[in-house]
Amino acid sequence: MQVTLKGEPVELVGVQPIVGEQAPGFSLFNTQDAKVTLDDLRGSVVLISVFPDINTRVCDAQTRQFNKSAANLDGVILLSVSKNTKEELLDWCAANGIDMQMLHDDQGEFALAYGLAIPKMDNKLARSVFIIDQHGVLAYKEIVPEISTAPDFDAALAAAKKLL
């Protein structure tokens, strides 16, 4: 699959999951060094916000917006995933006074499982949103066609609310 970065096509590596099928499993660490797996989240709706680099304007805005609007939805677990290091994510949260579940995909496990790795960008993850239902089925996905633009927040939140 291809997306664009400021109009230039970039190839994604891996196979993108299909809505209506079981979401690919993952096992990532959060900023408190606790392992988070998809299996551990069964029974809840999971909204996964994926971004290339927390230290950029659009990624910062995306993370703030989902933290503001999705973090307070009862029954929805919000995860933010990037290839940023644990330290970069902790620094961003501290600088912005935000306490949220941030997962770092250092080894690229999530990137490959969800078909989001961008080799041209040091295997950073393509901007995307996934919503997984209480049974582990992928209910919604948006892989943003132009990496430098924000996802459709309203569509993602509506899809999450529909599962509650």
Automatic annotation (TrEMBL):
> GO molecular function, one example?
thioredoxin peroxidase activity
One Pfam family named in its UniProt record? AhpC-TSA
InterPro entries (UniProt xref): AhpC/TSA, Thioredoxin-like_sf, Thioredoxin_domain, TPX, Tpx_Peroxidase_subfamily
Q: Does the keyword Oxidoreductase apply?
A: yes
SUPFAM superfamilies attached to this UniProt entry:
Thioredoxin-like (SSF52833)
Annotated ranges, domain Thioredoxin: 17-164
Q: Which UniProt keywords apply?
A: Antioxidant, Disulfide bond, Oxidoreductase, Peroxidase, Redox-active center
- Keyword Kinase on this protein? no
What name does UniProt use for this protein?
Alkyl hydroperoxide reductase subunit c/ thiol specific antioxidant
Its lineage reads: Bacteria, Bacillati, Bacillota, Bacilli, Lactobacillales
